[in-house]
Every structure is written in C-alpha cells, then in structure tokens.
Amino acid sequence: MSSFWSAWIIVLTLATLVALIWLLRWNMKNYTHIEEGQEMDHEFDGIVELNNPLPKWWTYLFWACFVWGFLYLALFPGLGNFSGLLDWKSSNQDVQSLEESRQAMEEAHEKGMIVEYDRAVRAAEEKYGPIFEAFAEQPVEELAKNEDALDVGQRLFLQNCAQCHGSNAMGGQGFPNLTDDDWLYGGEPNDIKTSLLQGRRGNMAPFGEQFSDKEINELANYVASLSGRDRDPDLIEAGKANFAVCSACHGADGKGNQQLGAPNLTDDVWLYGGSINKIEETIRYGRSGVMPAWKDILGEDKIHVISAYVYSLSNDE
C-alpha cells in the first residue's frame, strides 16, 4: 500500500472515531431549553418524546467500545501500513508460491513475529503429524481396509480433489471417474500414488490439419466401432486405414497405453464424451489435460492416505 493511501486510511479511521466520541458527548448533555424528563415540542401518533439522557449502561458500553477500538488499532494491524505493537498478522501476505510461503514462515519465526496462520500450521503438524506417520507405515492395500484412515482420506479428498473429480469421485467431462476400474495411468496403489505425487499431463495432438472433415468422420466412426457400437461398415473400413496414425499411442488394437496415459478405445468409457461429434472434436482439436502434483502441497504422508481412499473406491470387495 502506498504512503498516501496508508495516511488516508489512518486519518479517516481516527477522524471517524473522534467524530463518534463527540457525538456521544453531545448526546450526554442537555442543549435544549427543555428540562430533563420533560416533554419535547413534538409528538407522533399520540406518542410524546421525553427529554431523557442515554441509559448509563448504554453509555458505558459505548465508552468501552471506544477504549477497545483504540487499543485494538494500537496492538494489531489495521491502520494503513502500521503493523501494530504486537507485530501480529493473520498470514504472510503477497506470497506467490509454496516456496515463498515457506521462506516467509521461516523469516517470521526467526524475527519472532506472530503469524496466526503459521501458528495454526505448526499446531496441526504437532497434533496430526504422528497420526499420518503411523498411517504411512502401512501398505496402501492394508490401509484401504482401515475405516479410520478412510475417513481421514475422504476428508482430504473432499478438500483437495473433489473440485475436479466431484464429491462422489465420479468425475465429469475431462475429469476421470475414480470409482470404476478404468485407469489412464494404472490403478495399482503405486500408480495412484505416483499420479498424486507427481501429477499427470495428458496431451493428444490435434489432427484437424492432417485429415479432411470426411476423413475425420470416417476415423471417428471406426473409433466408435472399437467399443462394439454399430456404425456404417463403409465408414468403419475407410477410417481403419487412417487409424495407423492413432495406433502409435492407442495401440494397433486400440486398447491404449497406460505408460503414456493413452485411453483404451475398446471399452465404453469416454473422458470427453463418446458421441460421434465429441470423438470428431477430439480428433480435430486434440485434448490437453493436467492434474497438478500434490507432493509439495500435501506431503507424502497425507498423499499415502488419499491413495488408500482412492484405491478403496474401485476395490471395495
């Protein structure tokens, strides 16, 4: 905040408090020709106003609020750039990355500053860290049968993963369903954990410039036929000739490649929609999906618990 706006806020805040104090003092004195307790010169709907002072308890409450207000402004940040006598703040401001946040946390600790967010993080780590460490010692398959661990994993999932995969983990267009057994990068515990730790970046190249609209339609019909759908035999045969370009990732049989994250085209699971129009759109413009890496955000112990929860969703026997 610039010095001008800082000064503007300070002056405006203090001037408002002073004006309120003056208003309270003005209401405590009788500035009229009418004695206290006597009727005023006007009435409304048969109700006559009396010239009475403010109740004592009300007045005392006002003064207490003023004292608290000045005390709060002196101790805590709130007056422009003034940081307060306690050197307290709710969080480290203006950080742009996790690394900057960690550096700011360390600097604040070294300087003896009171940062409420940092205190909350340290308190949570002290309280819950041993619990996550104990969970991390168990294999994912075993942890997936631990009800306590699954409750914790579900909460972490709802807080961090549900924005894309949904609160029921069934995903949506462009976001995989985690409750079935169809996995782009593999559904084994280590595969799931790797996806969470390192993130995933799926990319299918666009072929709109390589194929004509007619060829794209033929190829879309052939791809649709791989999952057992009834399509025009002539379109299927014509599209099969161009599928060689796709087989580099999806395989000659169209069953995909989990090493590349290339989807299996022979089932009836479609990440971006399985209609002919949607398949044509995918071929013409390509697809690009990104799942962020969570290692630096949540840490390995918490990811271990989330992995167990996600694994349990499609392995609930």
Automatic annotation (TrEMBL):
The chain crosses the membrane at residues 6-24, 60-80. C-type cytochrome. Part of the cbb3-type cytochrome c oxidase complex. The keyword Transferase does not apply. Binds 2 heme C groups per subunit. GO terms for cellular component: plasma membrane. This is Cbb3-type cytochrome c oxidase subunit. Its main location: membrane. SUPFAM superfamilies: Cytochrome c. Heme c 1 binds at C161, C164, H165, M291. Its cofactor is heme c. Keywords: Cell inner membrane, Cell membrane, Electron transport, Heme, Hydrogen ion transport, Ion transport, Iron, Membrane, Metal-binding, Oxidoreductase, Repeat, Respiratory chain, Transmembrane, Transmembrane helix, Transport. Belongs to the CcoP / FixP family. Pathway: Energy metabolism; oxidative phosphorylation. Residues 148-227, 234-314 form the Cytochrome c domain. It is found in: Cell inner membrane. Component of the cbb3-type cytochrome c oxidase. It comes from the Bacteria. GO terms for biological process: oxidative phosphorylation; proton transmembrane transport. It comes from Idiomarina ramblicola. Heme c 2 binds at M204, C246, C249, H250. The gene is ccoP. GO terms for molecular function: electron transfer activity; heme binding; iron ion binding; oxidoreductase activity. InterPro entries: CcoP_N, CcoP_N_sf, Cyt_c-like_dom, Cyt_c-like_dom_sf, Cyt_C_IC, Cyt_c_oxidase_cbb3_su3, Cytochrome_c_Oxidase_Subunit.
